[in-house]
Write a structure and sequence with these properties.
- The protein is an alpha/beta fold and 305 residues long.
- The protein folds into three domains: 127 residues, Conserved hypothetical protein from pyrococcus furiosus pfu- 392566-001, ParB domain (Alpha-Beta Complex); 61 residues, no CATH class; 49 residues, no CATH class.
- It contains 14 helices and seven strands.
- The strands form two sheets. A five-stranded mixed sheet has the order 1-5-3-4-2. The chain has a two-stranded antiparallel ribbon with strand order 6-7.
- α3 crosses α4.
- The radius of gyration is 27 Å and the shape is elongated.
Amino acid sequence: MATPKTRLGRGLGALIASGTTPPKTVPSTSGAMPAPASVPAHDGLSGYREIAVHQIETNPYQPRRDIDAEQLAELVESIRAEGLLQPIVVRPVGDKYQLIAGERRWRAYQQLKLRTIPARVMTSSDASSASLALIENLQREGLNPIDEAHGYASLIRDFDLTQDAAAQRVGKGRATVANSLRLLGLEAELQAYVGKGLLSVGHAKVLLGLENSPERLLLARRALEQGLSVRALEELLKHKSGGAGKRRKMPGATAAALSDIEKKLTSHLGARTTLRHSPKRGRIIIEYQGNDDLARVLEKMGIAL
């Protein structure tokens, strides 16, 4: 895995480099960051400059929602020992500067209690700033699939872009963006599983094939508990779909009513429930996983053991 130092060398390099790259700056033992001799102090709105840390504010379009504390601590130590290998990127907003790329580097400087930080100042619109922030995070490690999907959604929603236009801005194919956005159709609980890496994007795609939300949640929890692979989850879904397909055909209104009852029972019991119904007789099938799950279902039904 790349170290924080090597990760700093990637990202927006090709997009933001111009002129001579400023020299590496190393924090002084006194806690103040001396301005590199080759970085001119000028009043222009572009180029490399030393900027006061307190004059910088976060990017409202930052796609990364959480910054890993352990990775940030490693970055702090890296900067303390080796200095900053790549300046942050900002744009002027009023009398302050707004981050485009480098929030973790900026936070590391805050923890080190350094007063100024090397920065590349760019003039950029809101849409361009959001695009660059997303690109920078996509090119680095650690942006989870849900944060990535929210980044695309923000570009489309906040700047009135089509999926095609958003894809072009970040250099991705439209299908890639479309598939990513589908993840936002998952329930919040399932998005959390995917965001934390407990379920893969492959698992999520399989679960998105189910329209029944309670059933989708149940299958996701089962996949977690049993450590099911994507293939195993697909097979499980096929098996369940096959069983449902054997239901005897009946008038649409009756079938819709039975489906509604199944959904309510499944939601109430927290267990997949299937009705086998005819005008004269029928049965209710309740699925459970082991003794503890059976006890839980019975308790839901008001049956004491």
